[in-house]
Design goal:
Shape: globular
Helix content: 25-40%
Radius of gyration: 20 Å
Number of strands: 15
Number of helices: 10
Order of helices and strands: EHEEHEEEEHEHEHEHEHEHEHEHE
């Protein structure tokens, strides 16, 4: 490793546009990793809504073009730099990279790597690195939903939403999920009451299912839906906003939907302090790679290894076909997580 470079390929997002026009492949070369870093041979990389947003320049604080996308990965450690004690060559690790994972080999900081049990499939493990931790933290750290509570999961057909349905079931929390009707068959076995947001009045249907209101709402849709979500909360309930999927095609600045969400939440918080919300609360959520992140990912990987959790994988697609995978994700045809395999 010190004298023989390892070559491979990576995908580069060159600008705004259709995936097939702006995503190119180029050769890479890696030698020994630097101090405190590890070189990983990627076994699976995730595709998420973040990359779809990046195609339109609407992901918060995305890098300047050109850059290598890829929010998360699972792979084998090939070499470690000096001072690395948390993993060793031959081990499998997971990492949330935010960008850079769409490649055959990726060098990452050792403290960003979480060791993956050897018996779990790489594609299922990578589905937990971002989507799984997001779902876990929304349910357990944000909403703090207790057994017997009821939660409304918007976007239940996505990687985060479908994992939330499973985690709710494991926690004894009743879940109501919104998703397009064509996704219901795949989601039905996850144990939720399903609502077709395209053909049903979501508010009316949720009130029928939970007349007293829901204890938690998980909303990735953005400011246009947030007030409706707030109105469905039971006294003492919590609303967690964690994205703005419905504003993908807006022609405003990328930051405007998030500013609008922040203003709504600030208003509700002011009313709460005045005692006028019945104890209801709202907050924004964004996954952070801190100590809690690593704890939560290890807990999820343990559930996966035990067979208690099985991420819903929609498609396994070769990394070279990432442009097709991006188009598939944007079309809304996928249910669950799309995984890229180098």
């Amino acid at each position: 490793m010190d004298t023989v470079p390892i070559t491979g390929r990576e995908l580069v997002l060159t600008g705004l546009g259709a995936p097939q026009d702006v995503l190119i492949s180029r050769e890479t070369e890696h030698s020994a990793p630097g101090a405190g870093r590890v070189l990983v041979r990627v076994e699976a990389a995730g595709l998420s809504f973040a990359e779809v947003q990046m195609l339109s320049g609407r992901y918060p604080m995305q890098p300047a073009f050109p850059f290598v996308p890829g929010y998360d990965l699972v792979g084998e450690v090939l070499a470690t730099g000096s001072g690395v004690t948390t993993c060793r060559p031959g081990q499998r690790v997971a990492a949330l990279t935010r960008t850079g994972a769409w490649a055959d080999h990726v060098e990452i900081a050792a403290d960003a790597a979480v060791v993956v049990p050897g018996e779990v499939p790489a594609d299922e493990a990578v589905a937990l690195v971002t989507n799984g931790v997001t779902a876990w933290q929304l349910l357990h750290r944000g909403a703090r939903a207790a057994r017997g509570a009821t939660a409304l999961v918007h976007g239940a057909g996505g990687g985060v939403g479908s994992t939330l349905l499973q985690l709710c079931r494991l926690a004894g929390v009743r879940a109501i999920g919104t998703a397009s009707g064509h996704r219901h068959e795949a989601l039905r076995e996850l144990g939720a009451d399903l609502v077709d947001h395209r053909t049903e009045d979501v508010g009316r249907r949720v009130r029928e299912l939970a007349p007293a209101g829901v204890d938690a709402v998980f909303d990735p849709l953005g400011p246009g839906n947030l007030t409706r979500s707030w109105e469905l909360l039971a006294p003492g309930g919590r609303l967690l906003s964690y994205g703005s999927a419905s504003t993908l095609d807006d022609d405003t600045s990328w930051w405007k939907p998030y500013a609008d969400v922040a203003r709504l939440i600030a208003r509700w918080e002011a009313l709460r302090l005045l005692g006028r919300t019945g104890g209801r609360r709202a907050r924004m959520y964004y996954v952070r790679t801190d100590r809690r992140y690593r704890e939560d990912l290890r807990a999820l990987l343990a559930l996966l290894a035990d067979g208690a959790l099985r991420p819903l994988i929609s498609h396994r697609i070769p990394l070279a076909d990432a442009a097709h995978a991006l188009s598939l994700h944007r079309s809304g045809a996928a249910t669950g997580k799309i995984v890229l395999v180098p």
